[in-house]
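Inputs:
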Amino acid sequence: MPELRKDPILGRWIIIARERGKRPTDFVVEPSKTKGGFCPLCPEHEKTTPDEVLVYGREPWMGPNSSSWKLRVVPNKYPALVIEGELDKQGEGLYDRMNGIGAHEVVIESPNHEDQFAFLPHDQMILTFRAFRDRIRDLSQDERFAYVMVFKNYGKSAGASLEHSHSQLVALPILPRMVVAELEGSLAYYKYKDRCVFCDIIRQEIQQDIRLVCENDKFVTLAPFAPRSPFEMWIMPREHHSSYINQDEASLSALTNIFSESLRRLDSCIPGVHYNFVLHTQPLRSKSLGHYHWHFEIVPKLSSIAGFEWGSGFYINPIPPEDTCRYLREVEL
Amino acid sequence: MPELRKDPILGRWIIIARERGKRPTDFVVEPSKTKGGFCPLCPEHEKTTPDEVLVYGREPWMGPNSSSWKLRVVPNKYPALVIEGELDKQGEGLYDRMNGIGAHEVVIESPNHEDQFAFLPHDQMILTFRAFRDRIRDLSQDERFAYVMVFKNYGKSAGASLEHSHSQLVALPILPRMVVAELEGSLAYYKYKDRCVFCDIIRQEIQQDIRLVCENDKFVTLAPFAPRSPFEMWIMPREHHSSYINQDEASLSALTNIFSESLRRLDSCIPGVHYNFVLHTQPLRSKSLGHYHWHFEIVPKLSSIAGFEWGSGFYINPIPPEDTCRYLREVEL
């Protein structure tokens, strides 16, 4: 059983997922890749994954886990957290721990092994954003969970251990530290100004027009004012919404358009670049929040100087976002 | 001039150090190494570094920057922050920025290019810990600075761009986010319990004896209860002190002994492992703090699954610290 442990000074939770390694020297080796080998996420290999929890694009007369589909969501075969059991919160002197209860799911974004997320056609890419919405809605019914983390690791240097295009959902019994910090920071601003800081950022960025990478009628993509990494981008809805899961189809479609354009602009600037993206949304079952605004953060993985963090929450970035924004705008798509 | 910028939601500061890169494609390339090439930190090459700000082991009749020395501290030739100028704090709508004023220094830990920090003899290694103390003392006289970050990147995957054994000091006009979080977290504990959380951790760890890697009369090395990475270690003084800079020679000597032993135990478990260490100490010119306790954190850089952070302040660790502690204790030195 995995375990959740809390740092007594910072309140930072970490997962101890014992199953993942055994001997000290196991940790120096990179995780094995499927390059040219067997891919458990490809069609015809559905039996090698746990049973799917969501599927799109399968004809109604086909059976579950059969090989006709456009997108599948399956539990992770090597989950960081497990779905069955009780939290069993315990103290150990001044320390706090609980069982590693949660869900860890894999969104298989396309049946085609060679597809890259950034270049998926609109009708295919939208399925991923719909799957995020539908899975968070479903997982929010489990009262043990406080938050669903949604993220994608694209490329080996961004932590991807499988080539086949996929993203991940992790349902957690606690709020991640970064979410708490964002909620607190935006609430402090709200109390002072009576406005959403994210709405104010969007207004100022549209007016200044020096960090606005692209936009459509429902979304904007910004190079944030204080980016951790060169070419970092935030994709934000123009309208104030604290939760991702209330989006309708028109919103998902506009999100797909701007996400696709933003990633293709990034790839044109730095061909083949690896990146992570993370969805930032409100805690599960929270009422709508006036101070919080859902968004995606896309962080490219670049050289070790770029975006280097000194273990103190302090980043150094060799290029201002106004410059990366200009590059991102100027590329031909 | 580098620039400091603050994220308006999280209060996270980042440095924009323009000098470090120019074109988008520059960022995919790893920084160049000196492997087999010219080393600017070696003796006889003193003219290739800026003038030294501290030297140990030079005969008094030799001139400054001459080639007889045991340890040198020099300004970084490509500093992330610059020493000259005013902070010139400015707002830009809802954003905050200031000039990137600070000091960025390199501690050249040995004249011998082939030396590895973990295996330096006692008389050589102690010079590094003395240099940290003496440089922080000196930099604390500059009223513009709020904090000195002291850290070492060992190995390419830990961000080192030069082979020659060295560590770095960065004097900052603001407090890094992690320091603020530690100060706040430990203060909250202090207000509740009227005790230092770090002192309580040390007491509990000595009593439980399952995460205590090694110890001497003045220091302990722990595998922390909630580590970000396998084989993470914290080195802490037994006696309560909030500031590193009040250490006497006996303390520096004991610190050198336990640091050397801890790093050699780590290297025996995972030969050649790359790592970062960071000094955590109180802000400059602060009075002694009852709730804060200086210490070093050593974080190995391992495989991309191990210690993987999902961009949300949430780490997954494949091995519990009780197991790494057992490995670290059992190795033959």
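The domain at 178-330 of chain A is CATH 3.30.428.10 (HIT family, subunit A). Flag for discussion at group meeting.
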